[in-house]
Amino acid sequence: MNVLLIGSGGREHALAWYLAQSDGCRELFCAPGNPGTAQCAETVALGADNLDGIVRFAREKSIDLVVIGPEGPLVAGLADRLAEAGIAAFGPSAAAARLEGSKAFMKDFCTRHNIPTAAYGRFTDAAGAEAFIRKNGAPVVVKADGLAAGKGVVIAQSVDEAIAAMRDMLSGNAFGAAGHEVVIEEFLDGEELSFFAIADGKTVVPLTSAQDHKRAGEGDTGPNTGGMGAYSPAHLMTEGLGRQIEETIINPAIAGMRAEGAPFSGILFAGVMVVNGRAVLLEFNTRFGDPECQAILSRLDCDLLALLHAAATGRLAEIKDGIFWRDETALCVVMAAKGYPGAYARGSVIRGIDRADHCEGVKVFHAGTALDGAGEVAADGGRVLGVTATGKDVAEARERAYRGVDAIDWPEGFCRRDIGWRALAPRSEKRS
Ligand code: AMP
Ligand code: GLY
């Protein structure tokens, strides 16, 4: 198969790395890619938002499968455009990607299909939102309806803070059009995990779990980011909890989207809060997480291309018994440019990636990197590298990942040193 991968982050480097190892992969292209994907795929100078260009390229190169990494082109309808052109695509239609693209749609959908989520109200007017906030009190969660790169959620500790955040969103100051509507939500106190399933519109197969560290600071403090590290499987995960998530969240969502005329194919990624043993849905994403993907794919023990192609072509039922996982933990530490998620500088040179790649069990995935004028790898984004390692348990995977981190010479970067801490903390230190 000729395969075109869309995106340029760490998730896409991981996808490219494993797709390139698939038996059925003839030519692999990545648009727009990064210096990491360039080691395993041919780079195509097309932005992920250039839908016309992508469809044209896929036709010209007789692409058999387009794998869409990020949410932007999914919500914009890239999978629909490819379907019209008769090209198979891995990733949901725009209508199905509303599960991620509109929190208001997602919440109402959950109500219609009895999927457990936090109690909520949705508002386009500040007066209605303010009355709702005052009635329910704090803490309370304020969310922009649309896509906001993981930053559209404010957990307000006071009514005043919630009202200020809500006004900032509705005025368009905070997130532009993505904030034209807000969802105000009950605050849930528990521990989070991410659950991934793959679907082809009708059949859905659970994949695995992960836990992400969204905050910039150690101990899960400080501002929210796109994700500073992740490990898989999540320590909270049990067979019973997995079954509960499938039965109460994943299966009803796939059946519900089908019943509503927007069958879901691709990755359904449920962000779940476990509250006293009960799984409550925080959000759906309609793609692999970044950096969860880097950890998850490191454990996948089957042909990735065959899996994604089966999902894209409605044949998951045929291959679902052939999906296996290595009995290992994988852990990804994100190295970011100092200042991220605030302002940061680009262009600093990074050395030692090869050295890190030679550490036992380690693979470094590029995210925000570029080659500078001298051909050296330099920082070109906020989240820059994902140093990923596998091991027999979280402790070993973590030790190996940080050995990889320490082999990298990049004074202008930083990382959290505590990825996976919840899995390693004594019970008494764990939050419920
Ligand atoms: P979301 O993008 O909806 O997953 O929200 C980002 C993060 O905000 C989540 O990963 C949670 O840590 C937190 N969060 C979102 N909704 C809630 C909620 N209702 N209660 C508590 N925390 C939440
Ligand atoms: N790491 C969280 C996400 O990809 O949405």
Instruction: List the ligand species.
Output: adenosine monophosphate, glycine
Number of strands: 22
The CATH topology of the largest domain is D-amino Acid Aminotransferase, Chain A, domain 1
Structural class: alpha+beta
The poorly predicted ranges are: 428-432
How many helical stretches?
15
Q: Beta-strand level of the residues, as a percent range?
A: 25-35%
* CATH architecture identity of the largest domain: 2-Layer Sandwich
- Provide mean pLDDT, rounded: 94
The fourth-level CATH homologous superfamily of the largest domain is ATP-grasp fold, B domain
- Global morphology: globular
Span of the ends, CA to CA: 47 Å
Q: How many domain modules?
A: 4
Rounded Rg: 21 Å
Summarize the amount of helix as a percent range: 25-40%
Instruction: State the CATH class of the largest domain.
Output: Alpha Beta
- Largest beta-sheet details: 9 strands, antiparallel
Q: Explain this structure to me?
A:
The chain is of the alpha+beta class and 432 residues long. The protein folds into 4 domains: 2-91, Rossmann fold (3-Layer(aba) Sandwich), CATH 3.40.50; 119-186, Dna Ligase, domain 1; 191-322, ATP-grasp fold, B domain (D-amino Acid Aminotransferase, Chain A, domain 1, 2-Layer Sandwich); 329-429, Glycinamide Ribonucleotide Synthetase, Chain A, domain 4 (Alpha-Beta Complex). 32% of the residues lie in helices and 27% in strands. The chain has 15 helices and 22 strands. A hairpin with a 3-residue loop joins strand 12 (215-217) and strand 13 (221-224). The radius of gyration is 21 Å and the shape is globular. Glycine (GLY) binds next to loops.
